[in-house]
Amino acid sequence: MHIEQLIKNIGPLDGEAMQKAVARLNNLTKPIGSLGVLEDLAIQLAGITGEVMPKVANKMVIVMAGDHGVVEEGVSSAPQSVTPQMVYNFLNGGAGINVLSRCAGAQVKVVDVGVADPTLKNINLISRKVRLGTANMAKGPAMSREEALQAIQVGVEVAEGEIDQGINLLATGEMGIGNTTPSSAILKVYSAATLSTIVGRGVGLNDEGLLNKIKVIETAIMVNKPDPADPIDVLSKVGGLEIAGMTGLFLGAAARKVPIVIDGFISGAAALIAYKLAPQVKDYMIASHLSEEPGHKLVLEAIGLEPMLRMRLRLGEGTGAALAFNIIEAATRIMSEMATFEEAGVIMN
Questions:
Q1: Active site annotated at which positions (predicted)?
Q2: Is the pTM for the entire model greater than 0.90?
């Protein structure tokens, strides 16, 4: 489906279902509003799904993997070879996201949308490689506009495919050494904050490395002149293939009325691009947590979302989103399993 048509398919939340959800919440055996964010989630989920008592038991984290040419500028303390190694770790069930997803009863799927290793192959890997990593954005566009659109389409199609198989709660995960650099660049295009405020140390840059990372991002923005009025232009010039893939996940889930959870900073950068393309997609997003990466707070503020958890996380992969899964499911179970005053025989007056 063409992206313009997909965006047109992202409609408003179901107001009638939300009103019914409020009425039910206010009649459950508790003071009105006493379950706070759980009640907010229950109302949002009713609006997304059109069901007063929705179910989100079929949970999945989709990890988009892609490499970044800008790593040749020394913006990461880890080598690019770690990306395919970690992809195999995900596929073997040994990464943080696998552990936390198992805790939440969620599946993990990994999509190769742009890992630079041409030999990457596994029976459980969804191989949708657009190109072998992005180009060095400090010297020119990270990718062509067509490649950015193709990577978005990968995300849309993967989301649709999993939803067709019964998945009713999605989360965005990522893997790609150096990907806090394009994420910072995307945020800077849409933020008045200084790069020294936005840019973090990633996997552990020292002071010298952090200053270099800031300079590289400045150069990339100066060389490419991304147009904030054209989110695809921003994505193609200073973004990443896995960021584009996650953008597609957000759009695809929203078009199919399925809630989708934002993980950390890189996931947030993709959410920001999706929001700039289709502001209505915000209503289908759930912000799981606040990352230690300084730009994450600014990304969520730019979209207008409030994170649920503050746990000093900075791993990525979808780990914060997986932790939030149980909270989101708890909100639905409050709606379906908690007794009303009448059912419990509780008389308040």
A1: 317 (proton acceptor)
A2: yes
Catalytic residue among 162, 242, 317, 329: 317
- Number of domains making up the chain: 2
Domain co-membership, 275 together with 170: yes
Give CA–CA dist 258/58, Å, rounded.
11
Sequential DSSP letters for 50-113: S-SS----SEEEEEEEE--GGGGGS--SS-TTHHHHHHHHHHTT-SHHHHHHHHHT-EEEEEEE
Contact residues for 278 (Cβ-Cβ < 8 A; gap 6+): 7, 10, 251, 254
- Facing residues of 171 across strands? 61, 261
* 133: CATH: 3.40.50.10210
pLDDT in tens, 197-245: 999 998 889 999 999 999 999 999 999 999 999 999 999 999 999 999 9
Q: What is the CATH number of the domain that holds 340?
A: 1.10.1610.10
Specify whether 317 is catalytic: yes
35 and 63 within one domain? no
